[in-house]
Amino acid sequence: MAESRLIEARSLARSFKTKGGTVEAVRGVDFEVRAGEIVGLLGPNGAGKTTTLRMLTTLLEPTSGGARVAGYDLQSQPREVRRRIGYVAQVGAAPSAGTLVGEELVTQARLQGLSKADARARLVKVAPELSLDGLERRALQELSGGQRRRFDVALGLMHTPQLVFLDEPTTGLDPQSRANLWEHIRRLRDEDGVTILLTTHYLDEADALADRLLVMDDGRIVADDTSEALKARISGDVIVLSVGDGADPGSVEAVVREAVGVRKLHRGDGGLNITVDNGAVAVAPMLRALDAAAIEVEGVAVSRPTLDDVFLTLTGRSLREGEAPAPTPEPLAS
Amino acid sequence: MLTETAIIFQRQMRILLRNPVWVFFGLTQPILYLVLFGPLLTRVRGGGLGGDASWRIFVPGLLMQLGIFGAGFAGFGIIQELREGVIERQRVTPARRVSLILGRTLQNMVTIAVQSAILCLVAIPFGLRPTWAGVLASIVVISVLAIGISAFSYAMGLILKDEDAFAPFIQSVSLPLLLLSGVFLPMSLAPIWLHDVSRANPLTYIVEGTRALFRGDFGDANVIAGVAIAVVLGALLAWWGTRTFQRQSA
Questions:
Q1: ipTM above 0.95, yes or no
Q2: Is B2's Cβ below 8 Å from some Cβ in A?
Q3: In 3-state terms, what secondary structure has residue A19?
Q4: How many CB atoms lie within 10 A of CB A219?
Q5: pLDDT digits (tens, 9 = 90+) for A231-263
Q6: What is the pTM of this model?
Q7: Is B21 on the interface with A (CB under 8 A)?
Q8: Number of A–B residue contacts, CB under 8 Å
């Protein structure tokens, strides 16, 4: 049923012309978001997440390809799209003096086409939902980081959109404010049935919030699945095994390979890292085999794969490295 | 579209009225000229200057200065709004792009009209004896021009996106235009080459027109030319500014 698909992107692409040449920010992505989903667009800085979001919110014209958003064509019916979507941009610069929380929210609602009375009524409903009640007369300058972010989210919700885009909603927030905002975002979907597409480069955020992940790297979507499925499909579980000093590493390896189906194996700091399909199932036969070979086991630990492992497998790079403000591929200069 | 324009206008006015000090801040420069430079002109002979008549020549020039600088630097505000994310959040609404920029330029227009009125009142004790209907008409002319100039300034702010590039740009455009329109001394005093160059500057006709209005010469050819140029220039700049704003927002 076409109605249940709130986003259908077809070969959506965008390139930017710079002095060094053309930079392909998004290289033709195809994906769908169904009604009621929370979908996370995950990737390092410079992967093309924000560019994708800006195209889907009518802020940026695609170079090629297109999309239907909330039932309307992005390029030919941008105003219809805008009526139905909410957009929460990345956190902006410090607000200027003279702007008040309540007034800004009402102004935003009125630009979305609500009457003065409806906008005020909506403020009364939205403010408590985002724990902003009592702050209506507060100057934006006086808000804490968490309050400011909740205000940003409220701006995107004033016209009761069916679909909300969140660009890095919790970047720069302390752990408590992040958890609090996650709670609000989940409630949006659970109680109001709002469909959400959010970008993040935080693995825990993607894990905690998203029903489904679109992993993005270098302008492409390299994976599209649930967090659990991605982990199971790509990484398997890792067993970290440490043995006594006397044991010959070569024979330990041979015993392990004999006993269980090893997908990958390498020697790490804490011992032998053994990747298997299912760690819980593999541990017992492995230990029995080691025991039979008279190899003394000092420790064994099973770890479920993290999204970082997934990302590493998919792209050959760790997402954590991407958090540092460093190696983004630069366009060839001069 | 009118409702949306009014919403933006009201928002910008609310912000301004919470810090009305900016209205007076913009007045300091023209008032300094009025107090510290204007009196010199009452002693100058030639070009219609001398005595109280000097004020009817000098004050219209100050109004132009106020309009050009006041509206010219409007773009500073939009660079800040761009950083805050205000522009982006307004662009994702179905509101027409024309309204987003028109609401802002109307606030600049009101500010400049109020500043112009204050400036003329301040000039009275110094000896300004104008035709008040002409003063009113002049303020309207400067206000119309201010709509165009501020729309242009907003568009340039969006294009340059950076105060460090924006300020020198506006400065380097506005100062020669002002000097070449004879805001401080009438161009009738100029050497022939400078006079000829000033004829190529549309602002010259507006300044001459408002000077005629201050004198009460409503039928003066300069009045007709000045009003026509202010309206056409204001409309052209407003159109270009809006179009640029539209393109920038895709």
A1: no
A2: no
A3: coil
A4: 22
A5: 877 667 888 888 887 788 888 888 988 888 888
A6: 0.85
A7: no
A8: 76
